[in-house]
Amino acid sequence: MPLSVRVYGDEQPGRPGAEPIATLVLDAPRILVGRAEGSEVRLPEPSVSARHLSIRQKGNDYVLIDEGSTNGTRVGKTTLVAHAPQTMRPAEVVRVGRLWLELAVVSEPPTRGAPQVAKEIALALVTRGLSDAGEDGRPKVRVVEGPDAGTEAVIEPGAALVLGRAKDAGLPLADPEASRRHAEVKLRGDQILVRDLGSRTGTTLGDRALGGADVPWKVGERLKIAGTVLECSFEAVQALAELERQPDCKVSSRELQAREEPTSTVAVSDDELDGDEVESAVAEEPAGGEPEVPTAELAPREDDRPRARSREGRSGAVWSITDFAVVVLALGVVSLSAVGYWVLLR
User: Fold this and answer.
1) pLDDT at position 335, please?
2) In the chain, alpha helices (H)
3) Which end of the chain is more exposed for a tag (fewer CB within 10 A), N or C?
4) For residue 286, what pLDDT is reported?
């Protein structure tokens, strides 16, 4: 059965505002999740190891195997033991570094061009990370020479960017020698492709004249349309290459748990806490380890006080009948003893 893999950022699936970045449906005996190129699910995040998690078919089931990752793999509240297979339920939410995966066995057909889609997912994650850092990593086309110098446009995934004089063109050109729909630019994975749309004056990429077939447009190459010169950029591609070369980033358990759904019934052991968390937990415990009892609980209740005074009275100056009888009996014994002693002396 195919496996659906939904990729999320640092928002836990099911929480408000959590939306998947992308979805892949794969049907393969082994699916590798990791940061390295060649992974079926490519996650360019420093907290994800190059080979982080593998998902393998075993009969009618899937098993999850952590590949000895730096930050581990969490399934629910369980952290997988490295290299120890764990059978996957029909649907699971898995934590991989700072990212989340939603896995589900489905009856849908596998995604066409899955390797290309996996690369697009990786670039989308990098672009998102750059955006969070205040940088724009999206693929763009910029006019460097001509009447529109300085103008630029973003190449949106899945959509063609038309260059020309038409008012509805993605990048309108004021060059009078350009055709209304002169050339077209689009994105495929990490490649920017360009082709001529049958223009009157033609389109040149570097020293090559373009035809109606898509041609890769590399960063640094110049595209010429009549008297207009354009360049392309794709910062996310360079950032992706740099991320793959970086060592794994160790993430504290506190940071990983910060974005998880809080639960009031799960106790966290000292082994799962960082050193500073243990100190904080100890600091909050009352001295002696016993709960502090409010002073009011130790004071006698109002209805107990009369009985306490009554007991005090019985042990003080108030005599009972029994006490009086004991005294009389004692005096009688003493009197008889005296009489007997007097008779003996006579």
Assistant:
1) 66
2) 114-132, 235-245, 253-258, 275-284, 295-298, 305-314, 321-345
3) C
4) 39
CA distances from 99 to 56, 190, 260 (A): 20, 22, 11
Q: Please report where in the chains the tokens 């998880």 appear, as a residue.
A: 260
Burial class (CB in 10 A: 0-12, 13-18, 19+), 144: middle
Nearest Cα neighbor of 125 from 149, 101, 99, 150 is 99
Pairwise CA distance, residues 267 & 252, whole Å: 18
Determine contact, residues 250/71, Cβ cutoff 8 Å: yes
Judge whether 95 and 256 are in contact, CB under 8 Å. Answer: yes
> pLDDT means per 10 residues in the chain (346 residues)?
92 88 93 94 94 95 97 93 96 95 95 89 90 93 97 94 96 97 94 97 96 96 97 94 91 75 41 40 39 36 40 45 64 63 58
pLDDT of residue 337: 65
pTM for the structure as a whole: 0.65
Tokens of 141: 């086309």
Separation CA 190–CA 24 (nearest Å)? 17
Quickly count: other Cβ atoms within 10 Å of residue 239's Cβ. Answer: 19
pLDDT of residue 252: 86
Beta pairing partners, 201: none
Edge-to-edge strand list for the sheet holding 30-34: 41-42, 30-34, 53-58, 61-66, 86-87
Residues 6+ apart with CB under 8 A from 98: 10, 45, 47, 48, 251, 255, 256
